[in-house]
Structures are given as C-alpha cells and as structure tokens.
Model the fold of this input.
Amino acid sequence: MVFRRCRQLLCDEVSAKDAVQEVFVQVVRNGERIRVEFPSSFLYQIATNVSLNTIRSRKQRREVDRGDTLLAMIADEEDSTEAVSARMLLDKIFAREHVSTRVMATYHFVDGMTLEETARELNMSVSGVRKRLRQLKERFSAITSPVGKERGFQ
Done:
C-alpha cells in the first residue's frame, strides 16, 4: 500500500522505493511516540508527505540547476584570461556580502551541497540559506544582465 502510494505520486519506481524506506525509517525513529488508531491511514499519510517532499526537492533542485549554469561555468573555468574575468565578476558580486555568504555559495554551488546540508554546516535555517542565495542570484542577475550593464554594474 505504501509503495503504491509513493509510486503513484512520484511516477518513478526507484524514487518510490527510496520514499518507502524513508516512510519506515520515520516510523522506526518515532515508534515510541506514535499512538495511532488506524495504522494504514497513518502510513498512507506519511507516504503522501514523504512523496510530496521528494517532489518539492526535485523542483527546487531543477530551479537551482537552471539558475546556476553560469556560476558553474565560472567555478570550472581554467583558462587564465577567462579565470581572471570570472574572479573579477565574483569579486564584484561578493563585494558587499558577508563572508558567510561566500562560504554558503561555495558549499551549495561549487561543492554541490543541498540547501539542508549547507544550512547544517552554517548553523542556519534552510529558509535563511534559501533567502540569502536567492538574493545573491538577484544581484548576480543585475550585474550580468544588459540592464545591469547599462546602469554601470559591470
């Protein structure tokens, strides 16, 4: 029943198997605190929540991947002229940022850490990390966009 629900929502058998494992890990972790009158409904609810969280994570990952293509290109740049240009651009982006924002961006964009992992490393909330990275991307877009160039950002 749990697997069917996860597979129905996730439309992917491998992800559904992972979600089923997560459902039962949650049950085992919280077993002593759980007092449920209808166990099948309870498992169905957990399966739904885990699957929806997985879908949200996928969506966030896709958004990050789309927005970070240029940042990834900068991080991977090895050509000396391009590397100098990339470093100048990064210096301009991070000029008014806290050092922790640079560390956060490195963890997330360069090292490939998830928002949750980044938040844990920096002792911050996931929403705080998400907000700071979103603001950083907005500044990055302002600097690199044609309108930003006209305003003298580059």
User: Anything to note?
Assistant: The longest helix spans residues 39-67.
